[in-house]
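User: Please work through this fold.
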Amino acid sequence: MPLFLVLLAFTACRIAPPTAALQRFEFTEPHMGTLFNITLFAPDAATAERAAKLAFARITKLDRVMTDYDDASELMRLCAQPYGTPVRVSDDLFDILQTSRRFSEMTGGAFDITVGPCVQLWRRARRQRQLPAPEKITTALAAVGWRKVQLDAHHKTVTLLAPEMRLDLGGIAKGYAADKALAVLKKNGISRALVAASGDIAIGEPPPGQPGWRIGIGSIDAAGNSLTKTVLLHNAAVSTSGDTEQFVELGGVRYSHIINPLTGRALTNRIGVTVIAKTATTTDGLETPLSVLGVERGMQLVEAHPELAVLFVTLEGNRKTMLASSRFRKISTSD
């Protein structure tokens, strides 16, 4: 998801004298339609550059597997196969499809990677500034439904069970890639690091002399960099979704880029969701479906999983409302 609420507030965190002569380094590269930023602490520039290069290479490989913007990607080649045909896929693709299925089950279908046909309609709507015809939404929904993806863990095969299916991993791929990049850094001796993919952030050990990485959460109604909350995190992840950047106004109605897989329609209510969990795969995978579920149902789901911390921010007219889960209230450090 696009960077919207989560801001990296490094300037607010005073770094104590480095332990073991560690120095801070930052690296940025474009991947998956956004910028990936790696911030790490290493003993020297050569070590930092080598680790960052390997981490970015891992992200590049995942992008080639999971993007829906390239017909040559493994994901799109899977979608191009005749429906009903078992297709053997790579470990990475099978892993993220299996993980996606768990989130679909957990959210009652509010997370659904088969929503691709509807996503395509609404992308076109934003470009052409014209609402999708109702009959086109109905047609697209015929190819949507997470149960229409059959996974065979023994043979690592995937079978799409309906015609015209188009999988879209945009709601989980960046968080997954951030996790994998952080794992590469750790494997190469870099444990004090952070990988940010727009609004999805995977966080390792804290900076030297600090209790954690300070992350600012921006306001849903702010055009600038004002913050509503600040959290201090290590060995965790945080993601945010919202429609501050991606939306279209048609007929006086604001339509979000977030699509409800159950209706095939874009959300029209203003809602921002920030999720904190152990991995960025989890936070990225849950931020959008929690927006779809809404505050009441979303909070019920979150409180049933004590490992999750969530902040909901809604906007009706000029009235902004924030509701934090019980764990988020313990993590939050300031308003």
Remarks:
- Residues 28 and 62 are 17 Å apart (CA to CA).
- DSSP finds eight helices and 19 strands in the chain.
